[in-house]
Amino acid sequence: MVSFSNYNHQHAAQISVEPIHAEGCQDRLSQHPSSDKGVLDDGGEVDLDLGNYERFLDVTLTRDNNITTGKIYQSVLEKERRGNYLGKTVQVVPHITDAIKNWIESVAAIPVDGKEGPADVCVIELGGTVGDIESMPFIEALRQLSFSVGQDNFCLIHVSLIPVLGVVGEQKTKPTQHSVRELRALGLTPHLLACRSAQPLLANTKEKLSQFCHVPIANILNIHDVPNIWHIPLLLRSQNAHHSILQQLNLLSIAAPSDLQAWTKMAETYDNITNSVRIAMVGKYVGLTDSYLSVVKALLHACIACSLKPSIDWIAASDLEDDSANLTPEAHAAAWETLRNAECVLVPGGFGDRGVKGMILAAKYARENNVPYLGICLGMQISVIEFARSVLGLERANSSEFDTESPDNVVIFMPEGSRTHMGSTMRLGSRKTIFQTHDCLSSKLYCNPKYVDERHRHRYEVNPEVIGALEEAGLKFVGKDETGKRMEILELPGHPYYVGSQFHPEFKSRPGRPSPMFLGLILAATKQLEAYLNTHQNGS
């Protein structure tokens, strides 16, 4: 199944390949460009879309599930250098298109849902706008693929926006008509249309789309705005989207009946939640909130588990600083008022020194005022710097990322890192964190395992030479890597919830199965943590 998005996507020539079994449910959920980088178990860095697929399908993808123009051209060039083409001139057709097809076919055979054997259905998503020059080799590759596998083994879903002109209020079908015509001219005819709109499509709109796009009315799916995103699979099921897809692929006889009872309950429960929890998100990219989309989703999962809605107050870290350039007194006062009114504080990951002073102030405020705090990656390093300055008295305590001349760098560059190359030089992917004691909040929230596997993305880490002094002063490192030299989780005993993790727990959070780190933050913010742990430890 191929879904072409026809609007607002940043990566025009990117294919995401997700093999799933026939009873799976897939839908295109995110169309927003973002600087957020997701990390997969194998260390692959991908964009928002694959994170959405992992969350909604509850699968574990790999770097090979994400195909980009650069990856394809690199593989073709490597083959040419090895002499695989025997001196032939390398061309877009057939060499680039063959590489795309071969990549899809090889990845489609690798299961990602924990079941053995190849999947029954491979979901291919080609982002971009039909007609873009960047997409052409991919569209041609998919045209060839549809021909080689046969029409009964290929279902094409075209995703398109149905805009409404404010003056007349009419649902306009012309953009979709044009994109479908362009797509058919390129050799691909959609079997289904997935139409995004603010309001449900009118009957005459569907009739017009069917007539001019050569798609049966029953195969015109409408994904209109809904109260929350979990209604989308329910909306598709109500329109028999699964039936149309399975019928096109001749899988009706073997597909298991859809069971969305738990999903329905989750969607309806969220609609009926009235209470909320105020969360201060102190970061440097708050102007583009999608930069923290994975964190926001993890907070959402945790809040729903506590029957709450997240009320996130975005605070630009630099607004908390007294000496920040171009900052008005009013903005400074507003930032601090927002922080003081929050029930918990979260400092997410990031790179560079902008806003670091503000993050340190936020960590200090949370520590001294017993406000639940969660620091992720940079946020954990910030809490170490703040503790070293305020408790150990090391006024110049810092990270070598921000101050290479400081005599008291409590955060240092990783020994195996590279200072000359930015790509693939970080500590990436799933790594073990071994608990040093089970008598800590983190271990209890994870149900007291010996270790956990979480995903990492960082170049700097806590300096092992200062661990003794920090722990003697009261900051405890309850989770370390297998060598015992890398600090993975810190806690402050006696504090309601002051936790930092070097890894990114948000990447493994799922609807109905929130990340323990985020769940602990929300429970502590609403003063439910102790009761939860007592119940949990008793196995209830």
User: What coarse outline follows from CA principal-axis ratios?
Assistant: globular
- Radius of gyration (CA) equals 25 Å
Roughly what percent helix?
Answer: 25-40%
Largest beta-sheet details: 9 strands, mixed
Q: What proportion of the residues form beta strands (DSSP E)?
A: 15-25%
Our measurement of the CA-to-CA distance between the termini, rounded to an integer number of angstroms, reads 43 Å
Mean pLDDT, nearest integer? 88
Extended strand count? 21
Q: Look at the helices and sheets and give the structural class.
A: alpha/beta
Annotation keywords:
540 residues, alpha/beta, seven-stranded mixed sheet, disordered N terminus
Description:
This protein has 540 residues and is an alpha/beta fold. It has 17 helices and 21 strands. The strands form 4 sheets. Strands 11-10-12-13-21-20-19-16-17 form a 9-stranded mixed sheet, with helices on both faces. Helix 12 links the parallel strand 12 and strand 13. The longest helix has 17 residues, at 92-108. The model is unreliable at 1-15 and 20-35 (pLDDT under 50).
